[in-house]
Amino acid sequence: MNERALAPPVLLVEDTPSLQMVYRSVLMRAGHRVQATGTASEALTVFREAKPGVVLLDLMLPDRNGLDLMQDMVRLRPEVRVIVITANGSINQAVDAMRAGAFDFLVKPFEETRLLSAVENAGARTGRSVPRPAQPPPGAGLFLGSSDAMARVYTKIRSVAQSMATVFITGESGTGKELCAQAVHDGSARASGPFIALNCGAIPTDLLESEVFGHMKGSFTGAISDKPGAAAAADGGTLFLDEVCEMDIGLQTKLLRFLQTSTVQPVGATKPRKVNVRIVCATNRDPLEAVRRGQFREDLYYRLYVVPIHMPPLRDRGADVIEIAEAALERFADEEGRHFDGFDDEVKALFLRLPWPGNVRQLLNVIRNVVVLNTGGRVTPAMLPLELVQEFEAARATGPAAAASTLVEPTLEGLVGRPLAEIERMVVEATIARFGGSVPKAARVLDVSPSTLYRKIEGWTGGRK
Does residue 57 contact residue 84 with C-beta atoms inside 8 Å? Predict the structure, then answer.
C-alpha cells in the first residue's frame, strides 16, 4: 500500500447534499481519502471507527449543535484537528469554536484553494501522514506565463530562493501571490520542510495571536488543549503570511520580536521556544502607504521588505492570458472527463482586450464555468458567461476602458430615492460579491474592518445559516 492509502481519512460533516458533494470532490481530487456524513450522530460513529486526522465540521446540523459535537470529538481524541464551517451570519459561532479548540474555520462561501490550504495545514500539524497535495514549481501548473513581466518574476525567484532573505510579495488580488510564495519555498533548501500559509485578513483579531504563536491548555476560557501556532508548525520550512498588512498593530510588535529572536511563546506559556523559519509575506495593498497611515509599523516594514517581488496584473501580461486559459481548459476538461478543442479566435481576442479586474482567479473561474456548463468542442463566445459577453460587446465598441466601467454596480440610478440603510446594504453586498465572497477584501475596499462587515451581515441575516 502507498502512503496515501495508509493515511487517516478526512471526515466531512455537512448536511447539505450538494455542498457535501462539492467539498468531497475537491478533497478527493487533491488526493485525500474522505468519509462524509450529514448528521451529528452518524459523524460521531464514523469518528470513533475511522479515527480521522482532520474533521471538516459544519456547525449547523439537523440533529445537534455542531459546537457540542466538536467538543465531544476533542475530548475523545485531543490530537484531532477540527476545521469548522459556518455562514457569514454565524461568524460568532466560529469564534466560539476556535476558543473551544477548533483548529481553523471556513466562512461560506469559500474558495477551493482556501479549503485545501486549511486541510493541508491541519494535516501538517497532526503529526500524522495526511497527504499533502503536490504543489507546482515555477513555470508549471497554474503558475505560468511567458511574458517579460513573468520572466522577471521567475528570475527573482531563482535568485532569492536559496537564501534566507525575507520575501515580500505585492500585487492585486488574484494575481497568484501564494503560488509565488510556494515557488520560493519549492526552490529553496527547505523544500522538504512544511509550507504553512496563514491569511492574516481572514482571522478575527482576537484569535490571530493564537493562530500565529499558539496557546497552552487552560491559557484562556475554552483552551482545552495545547495548540501549536503557525510559526511553530513551519519549523524547518516556510511561513507564508498573506494579507500581512491586515495584522493588528499590537500583534505586529510580537511578530517583529519573533523575527528578531527566532523564538515563539504560545499564549499561556512561560518559556519561549526556538524555531527555524523562513518568512514570506504578501499584500494586495501598498505597504508603504499603510506605514504612512499608521496601520503598519515602519520598523516591521523594513524588517520584512527585504526582497520585494511584484506579481503583475493579468491585463499587463499580454498573451499570458491565452497561455493560462489553454492550460486551465485542458486541466479542467480532464477533471470533468470532457474534451475541448481550444478557443475560437474571437474568444482569444476578447480575452486579450478585457481588463480582468479579478486577474488570474477570475480567468480560471470563467474557464471552469465553460467546462462545467458545456459538453466539449471549440469554445465560442456563446459558451462564455453572459456577463463576460456583455463586457466583450463593450470592449468591441469602445475599448477596454468602457468594458471596465461595466463592472461598476450598483448604478447611481439604482440608488437614488432609496433609504440610506438600504443603499449601504446594496453597496456592501455588491462589493463582497465582486471579491468572490471575501469579506476581508471587501472591507479593505470599503475602508472598514472585517469585523464591522461581519456584524452588519449578521444583523441583516438575523444569524441565519
Answer: yes
Distance (Å, rounded) from C-alpha 438 to C-alpha 445?
Answer: 11
Whether the model clears a pTM of 0.85, i.e. scores above it, the answer is no
To the question of domain 335-399 being in CATH 1.10.8.60, the answer is yes
pLDDT tens-digit profile of 226-280? Answer: 777 888 888 899 999 999 998 888 889 888 888 888 887 777 676 778 888 999 9
Of 174, 163, 246, residue with least CA distance to 211: 246
| Non-local CB neighbours of 306 within 8 Å, separated by 6+ positions | 165, 166, 167, 168
CATH homologous superfamily of domain 148-312?
Answer: P-loop containing nucleotide triphosphate hydrolases (3.40.50.300)
CATH number of 3-125: 3.40.50.2300
**Which residue from 372, 441, 161 is spatially nearest to 280, judged by alpha carbons?**
161
**420-461: CATH number:** 1.10.10
Give the strands of the sheet with 195-199, arranged side by side.
Answer: 195-199, 238-242, 278-283, 167-170, 307-310
